[in-house]
Amino acid sequence: MASLGEFEFIDQFLRSQAAQGQPFYRHPLALGIGDDAALMPPLDAAEQVAVASDMLIEGRHYFPDVDPRALGHKVLAVNLSDLAAMGARPLGFTLSAGLREIRTQWITSFLDGLFALSREAECPLIGGDTTAVPQGGAEVFSVTVLGAVPKGSALRRDGLQAGDDLWVSGHLGDAAYAVTLKSTDPKLDWPQPRIALGLRLRGLATAVIDISDGLQSEVMHLLHGAAGRSRAPAQLMATLCWQDVPIGPRLRQAVSARQRDDHEAVCIAITGGDEYELLFGASPHEQSNIRDIGRHLGLALTKIGSVASSETFGIDWRDAQGQPLAADWQQRLHNGGFRHF
Ligand code: ADP
Ligand code: MG
What we know:
By secondary structure, the chain is of the alpha+beta class. It folds into 2 domains: 6-150, CATH 3.30.1330.10; 165-334, Phosphoribosyl-aminoimidazole Synthetase, Chain A, domain 2 (Alpha-Beta Complex).
């Protein structure tokens, strides 16, 4: 199969497509691909820059036979999801690629997926690096995304307050379920970064995180974030209803077909990673505003429980009648979060 040289690749594949339809490239002070560094146009004095990086490694985060178009989408989507979780609007991104060789057909599809999302999110590719990895080595893609957020209004992980409700966007579990079946799923392959939701949660949510490692583990991050913020750490306990967790259509179907029981399905939804939905805390007074936002965006926003000051710290899973979840299931949930090492 035809393969390309590095400079040919940068010039013919990256430089030309990166600019297409992107307002960034029309700004007189902006400079994109081609020089030693990119130049951003100046920001509004009232804004600060948000920066996030995420890396995908072959054999670790994706299968070698992945659809390259989906991979191109995903490497940008997971980064945009981090911006969404900060309430930042995208400014641009860099792409660093370690490749065994530049296969024309494969990279064309990869860039189709990447640039389609780049244009949709108005987040232009402004630079990067392209290097060869040793033959037989894993390929790797790393994206760094830049965003802007009004000073002091970024949606951080450390703002949760006693009394807040906890909410999740979209539905959970289908991505992890697809992995267990070694099959594909739109949730797994084409994650949709919740940028519009992030922007609307500014000034409304107390704390926001995107669900990359599983709901259980992200709720713990918010609880730890709140504990880390206060000088005299107030213990927070999240009381969550497992029947309120919005499970994905595919898992729901597996339950109807009796391929999974409902505890199992919820367990997958709660511990499964790769969701890229937003988990957020908000005062109960915001409930109707949040429902309006969900309706406006055509995105399910589901209240799954609330947090309160407590003698103990952690998550208490209950059923719809307020009864605690059986101890063995609680344990499975606690053990189930994704660990990178
Ligand atoms: P340098 O020697 O300064 O590192 P390179 O030859 O690596 O320059 O890159 C030349 C230009 O191409 C730079 O503007 C760089 O940002 C851009 N570039 C290289 N690889 C990529 C990539 N994978 N994605 C986007 N831009 C890239
Ligand atoms: Mg370089």
